[in-house]
Amino acid sequence: xxxxxxxxxxxxxxxxxxxxxxxxxxxxxxxxxxxxxxxxxxxxxxxxxxxxxxxxxxxxxxxxxxxxxxxxxxxxxxxxxxxxxxxxxxxxxxxxxxxxxxxxxxxxxxxxxxxxxxxxxxxxxxxxxxxxxxxxxxxxxxxxxxxxxxxxxxxxxxxxxxxxxxxxxxxxxxxxxxxxxxxxxxxxxxxxxxxxxxxxxxxxxxxxxxxxxxxxxxxxxxxxxxxxxxxxxxxxxxxxxxxxxxxxxxxxxxxxxxxxxxxxxxxxxxxxxxxxxxxxxxxxxxxxxxxxxxxxxxxxxxxxxxxxxxxxx
Amino acid sequence: xxxxxxxxxxxxxxxxxxxxxxxxxxxxxxxxxxxxxxxxxxxxxxxxxxxxxxxxxxxxxxxxxxxxxxxxxxxxxxxxxxxxxxxxxxxxxxxxxxxxxxxxxxxxxxxxxxxxxxxxxxxxxxxxxxxxxxxxxxxxxxxxxxxxxxxxxxxxxxxxxxxxxxxxxxxxxxxxxxxxxxxxxxxxxxxxxxxxxxxxxxxxxxxxxxxxxxxxxxxxxxxxxxxxxxxxxxxxxxxxxxxxxxxxxxxxxxxxxxxxxxxxxxxxxxxxxxxxxxxxxxxxxxxxxxxxxxxxxxxxxxxxxxxxxxxxxxxxxxxxxxxxxxxxxxxxxxxxxxxx
Lengths: 313, 340
Fold this sequence. Notes:
The complex is a heterodimer of chains A (313) and B (340).
Chain A: H1 3-10, H2 12-29, H3 34-39, H4 45-54, H5 61-73, H6 87-122, H7 127-141, H8 144-158, H9 174-208, H10 211-218, H11 223-245, H12 247-260, H13 266-275, H14 279-307
Helix pairs in contact in A: 1-14, 2-14, 6-7, 6-9, 6-12, 6-14, 7-9, 8-9, 8-12, 9-11, 9-12, 10-11, 11-14, 12-13, 13-14
Chain B: E1 8-17, E2 23-33, E3 38-42, H1 49-57, E4 65-68, E5 71-74, E6 77-78, H2 84-90, E7 95-98, H3 112-121, H4 128-141, H5 147-150, H6 160-172, E8 178-182, H7 190-207, E9 210-215, H8 218-224, E10 227-232, E11 235-241, H9 242-247, H10 252-259, E12 312-315, E13 318-320, H11 328-339
Parallel strand pairs in B: 3-9, 3-10, 7-8, 8-9
Antiparallel strand pairs in B: 1-2, 1-4, 1-5, 5-6, 10-11, 11-13, 12-13
């Protein structure tokens, strides 16, 4: 394993610590007494006191932080103030639909956007290219819920091919799960593939103008070979970067999409927790999302070594 | 022209860019090249040397250039009537090209071995093992030290001189009969430059390859050329043997180029100030009426402003596109003027 990989793996530790401390401090940054905030407007002083003790809010800040970190390390994210259930099991119940939605959207977008971007770049300036640019501007600018409701209207209500809303878990069979997730992930793919297609197109145009592409043509490589063998590997780094960094935006979109399609996932859990001031749940969700993003970015960086031999040293 | 067809023959090659090829970067270029000979294409930056070479290879980006010619024949084939697939088949096998910048001309994501093997396997059906053997052989031929290990190296791990030798190896692996070298030594150290030139002459001796060598370095021309073609503002202005061009330049531009070149004479203290050609190369959209060199030519006559000069023969195999070709007497008097 090269130096680069080791260094990048080690850099996860400080990032994770910063995330945890920030999430912990969230509770204390806002104005007022956190215990009173959580207890709500109609709570009695006794109830507030009870919450204060349960969340260790009566201890000194540093001790609280230490307690919090030591619990998180043991995978104890506390209990929901609202339902009293452990936050971890709440998240465990909700994570599958979100994971399925995010992964299927990611796959769908990349499978559509990268070939489209490459095609448009190859035919830069043509009708195909212009059509792609227009489509990607639309994909960017039409809100997710508009696309969602239009798709539901056409494919679920009028055509009746797909369920209007709801989620069927993987345990109910792959096909059922797939059917329930098609419309949500297509909806969410618009935004994501618009982004990826544009970056692919731009990078591809740049790469196709490189001297080494001319060299490949000079030695007699045909068009397809130039695209697949000589150009594709060189657009890897920028394309994977945009896929990774916009994964955060994708998670944001997941929250809205889950509301539109009534999917009981992490997005809904987040929204509900914020509305009920269920701070432990909010914190838990934040930690999970943050660690997913840290992992995605780690994978993105490690993939650089795959595409670009200059990074490996 | 001899009865037998020359190996490479161009007649009135023109290349236009932009809408309908309106910007004519190359106009009416004609020359022949015999197998085993070296033609140097000489001229300032932007004179159309590279565009001419790229057109022979058919390497302009599809749809970007309009190439026309009365004749563009290589080894009996009409290159103009070839489609892209046919040209792909010829590129790398019959004709190959080396480029100016070895730093950017190799694919950074692929190993040296892969890029060389590909050049071979695109044109010849050989097994991976046989291909590797050929790659190793050609790497040793271009004097890559430790060649077997270098096959697994990536371009960024090699020096500029070594990369250019890789480029040469890649161009030569299928033993092309025409090699176009577009300023292959410009980006390299002088010592490396000498090695590269030596390699090319070695190649020519061994395989009888015809070489078009593009350069603006007249020192290199003197060393390697059989024939010289001088380009100015997109067109050829003079062509002849290297001896004719250096000893009896008959176009004002050729004479100017030669006078602007440093010549080191042993025993002389200083070179003195080099003479420059006044003015700049005109842009393609603002070519002067008549001869395109007229505004910078010290020999220009009033008639030069009026009509575009035709080719005229100065001597056997030595042509100039000038209505007032320099004869020795005029050259001598011009030279005297410079002395004063």
